[in-house]
From TrEMBL, chains A, B:
The keyword Ligase does not apply. The keyword Cytoplasm does not apply. NCBIfam families: PRK07586.1. This is Acetolactate synthase large subunit. Residues 374-510 form the Thiamine pyrophosphate enzyme TPP-binding domain. It comes from Sphaerisporangium aureirubrum. The lineage of its organism: Bacteria, Bacillati, Actinomycetota, Actinomycetes, Streptosporangiales.
Length: 517, 517
């Protein structure tokens, strides 16, 4: 058994049985070894950002990591943006980066690169395999490191000669560290605050955004009057009819400030203290209102769901969670606009869907439009590195083959990882991608105003516009083997969305929307 | 004047007047400032790898750097692969990475990232601006650092508040360090070797691959019988009818070994000692034959052209360079194959063209087919990070608006930076892209065999194939606004290539070629 075989055997034994891959020469023995471990399923991405984003989306839905196979430093670089997003999502991801053979590195061959420096920028776990006989143990350690609560990117650098060398030994799975319990006094202090009569905000994040955490949060809120908010960009938020609705903290600082205004206490439950996404001239970065005290119920990595449940049992023993009613918006009509497209999604979203949301500025009305739609999972752009939506959807679809996946995708962001569509076609995934095509970096037009950079001159305006030429997403999708249509009216979007959901396999709808700015 | 304005003013004064950009919020004041410096031309790329590859291609042809504007660590990550190639090409590139405002960093906002770690992996020059009043001086230092011989990637990290802050002061250009002279005794020693009667290889690289270096090399070779070779992947190689032809050292180690066999001395002139691209089980990495001694005439960063010319004057005073005759292959006919497509290029290549070559396995016969074509510049994949061909062509076209640019592009590699086509359309660049579409990672099929990984099983084979589904590059190009056609016969390729060269603006030809492996 060679090193690569021991690596893949170990991964599969640890429950990692999907490997998203964009391999190169130094990974050829790893690729060859895939056929020796029948449980392992390799999925090709045509660009590393597809691979890493899919691994992120997979783990968000499956609850266990996938592997991502990359080729030396440049491959890791191409995958870095979506690993950044995975890091912010606290998603467990096992990255295997193939490197030159140990004895080859001193020659500074063209692809020689500082893999550790790039991987280290993710503040996760990084190890370089040092002996073929240890590759299995390294792999087991990587899986555990990725899964140690709250989850992280674990990068294993695999030199080619350790991959092809004989003497590989599979290792048993290493149990990851579970979430650390929250001590009873911390729960009791939070209970005291909630009973104290002063206005409290409860800001939830991480696993608290799943059903059990939402139920506890809803009970607390209903019994005490505390305002419940979810972090702005949760990795996975469960929502829809029958689940308690928890409003998200707004992206825009003026709106977030309004949500938090007047509160004297902020209890953090799996979330970090709110700050603005970017700095703006003359505005504070810290969104916590003057005079509001911060209290931490559970940090990321602590058992926030247990803590919230215990807290609810203290302050809301007889209170039930408040489910959101089933309520869909009516199907809109007329030309497609910023204001009506989300209602189409809300009106037609199928049962048990997964939404990968990178609609950015176009999606401001989406939460309202889908709040009473059938229960669904929402995966958001956690780290702000655009180009995540379609890859995350791809991984989610592989993790949950029976569930419909809907990607709501801004046009500009779509183009960073557009080849994801090919992987969706190859794997015949039930993903419906709606591109919100306003032919602009609309968010940058907005931010241009917000940072006070006056109005754009002609050179600046050219850098904020995606036209001319217009990008034809129907052609792009068909080029990658995904059937596609264009919608310019709400009726067209509704008909095409319904048909895409009905027909198996991937589809794309180029939803052309006039820009607001 | 704010910091951004002082930065752009300084860049323009130092001769950096093109800025390839994929900006985000933290770069909005930089974008706004573009309109205050009329000499500066902003070019939007839809992905950072387009931006950095274009900056590389621009400088290879213009001989001076462009700026590349990127957005925090994830943006730099997306641009890293082509910066790696630029590093290997020793191309001067000025990278400006916008960062959060200085006071915002401590909040660990979602896009907070370790920019210096990623930039540092390039072994170039990295500086973080520390005061608005120094941004101009930092920019001048960055340009000089990029241009100091032999050239490198210089990364300037620009916090948003230093960009928008008032008090910017433009700085005068800083003279970059010219190539260091080669001392006369080193030239004399090389002359002694060449006159010594033992077989000598002269391996040239860097600026020696341009006309003056080639002429000197040819004189030396003609007068002494030394074998002249150029480095495997030159940043820019001038060739064609009327110029001396210098064969490149082969990528494949068996072929390179044959080229070098039997030589007792290897003189390095701007090149580094030859090593294999990857390690292969049981094969040496070092390509220098047993018993062959290495002598360095000029290291990268030394004035190799002057040294070669001085050497030629010593050993070949009365010898003229040997120009390659004008000689085109006949136009082939019949189905397009691995063996005939390059002859179409050789037969029809226009005068004064620039070829960006990322044809990889499909391009093995290209050097021979184009050796006697009209004089042209060849830009190669210097660092092995695929996805360079189309961006480099884009930058080259902006650097040389009057010259036809031809991209010869493997299908798999094309997909890393496919949105480059949109920038070509927007800027109406005279670039003709021929995609060599063999529906496979053919190089990986080859490498799979070479590393001795037996024959691929079904899982492995799926990771080496780009079909199904077939990728339709005509649709992809049209989606990005570039007119495109498909060729399956040599006659079709010839007709379409001639027409694409004749018509202004970008074109793409999807040249479907049966895979060899």
């Amino acid at each position: 058994m060679n090193g690569a075989q021991s690596l893949i055997r170990t991964l599969a034994d640890a429950g990692v049985d999907v490997c998203f891959a964009n391999p190169g020469t130094s990974e050829m023995h790893f690729v060859a070894a895939l056929d020796t471990v029948p449980e392992m399923h390799g999925v090709l991405g045509l660009f590393e950002g597809v691979v890493t984003g899919a691994a992120d989306g997979y783990a968000r839905v499956a609850g266990r990591p996938a592997a991502a196979l990359l080729h030396l430093g440049p491959g890791l670089g191409n995958g870095l943006a979506n690993l950044h997003n995975a890091r912010r999502a606290r998603t467990p991801v096992v990255v295997v980066v193939g490197d030159h053979a140990t004895y080859h590195k001193k020659y500074d061959a063209p692809l020689e690169s500082d893999i550790e420096a790039v991987a280290g920028s993710l503040n996760g776990w990084v190890r370089r395999c040092a002996a073929t006989g240890d590759v299995g143990a390294d792999a087991a350690a990587a899986v555990a490191a990725a899964m140690d609560a709250p989850g992280r990117v674990a990068t294993l650098v695999l030199p080619a000669d350790l991959s092809w060398g004989e003497g590989g030994r599979p290792a048993r799975p290493v149990a990851p560290k579970p979430p650390a319990p929250v001590a009873a006094p911390a729960v009791a202090r939070a209970a005291d605050l909630l009973r104290g009569g002063e206005p409290v905000v409860l800001l939830i994040g991480g696993p608290a955004c799943l059903e059990a955490g939402l139920n506890a949060t809803s009970r607390i809120s209903a019994a005490t009057g505390a305002k419940a908010l979810a972090e702005t960009f949760p990795a996975r938020l469960q929502r829809g009819a029958g689940l308690p609705a928890v409003e998200r903290l707004a992206y825009r600082s003026d709106q977030a400030t309004a949500q938090l205004a007047g509160h004297r206490h902020l209890i953090l439950a799996g979330a970090t203290a709110p700050v603005t996404f970017f700095a703006y001239p003359g505005e504070p970065s810290d969104l916590v209102p003057e005079g509001c005290r911060i209290h931490t119920l559970a940090e990321p990595g602590q058992d926030v769901v247990r803590a919230l449940t215990d807290l609810a049992d203290l302050v809301a023993p007889g209170t039930a969670p408040v489910p959101h009613p089933s309520r869909r918006p009516p199907l809109p009509s007329g030309p497609l606009t910023f204001a009506n497209w989300a209602d189409v999604i809300g009106a037609l979203l199928p049962e048990n869907a997964i939404i990968s949301d990178e609609s950015n500025t176009s999606g401001v009305l989406l939460p309202k439009a889908t709040a009473g739609a059938p229960r669904h999972d929402l995966l958001t752009l956690t780290g702000g590195a655009i180009g995540q939506g379609m890859p995350v959807a791809t991984g989610a679809a592989i993790a949950a083959p029976g569930r419909p996946v809907v990607t709501l995708q801004s046009d500009g962001s779509a183009l960073y990882t557009i080849s994801t569509l090919w992987t969706q076609a190859r794997e015949n995934l039930d993903v419906t991608t709606v591109v919100l095509n306003n032919r602009a970096y609309a968010i940058l037009r907005l931010e241009f105003q917000r940072v006070g950079a006056s109005s754009p001159g002609p050179e600046a305006a050219r850098l904020l516009s995606l036209s001319p030429p217009d990008i034809d997403f129907v052609h792009l999708a068909e080029g990658f083997g995904v059937p596609a249509t264009r919608a310019t009216t709400a009726e067209e979007l509704a008909a095409q969305f319904a048909e895409a959901l009905r027909a198996p396999g991937p589809h794309l709808i180029d939803a052309v929307i006039p820009p607001v700015l």
